[in-house]
Amino acid sequence: MAFMDVLPDPDRRILDSGKGGNNTSPQTGTAGPGFASVKFASIQPTMVSRTNGGRVVTRAQATQYWKIELSYNPLTRAEFEPVNSFLMSKQGRLTPFYVVLPQYDTPRSLFTTTVRTDENATSGATKVRVDGFTAAGDAGPRPGDLFTVIDTTNSNHVKAYMVTRVETSADNNGSLATGEITDRIIHFNPPLTYAVGDNTALNFTNPRIRVISQKNAQEYSLSTDNLFNFSLSLEEALP
Question: Which CATH fold topology does 106-203 show?
Answer without folding.
Answer: Elongation Factor Tu (Ef-tu); domain 3 (2.40.30)
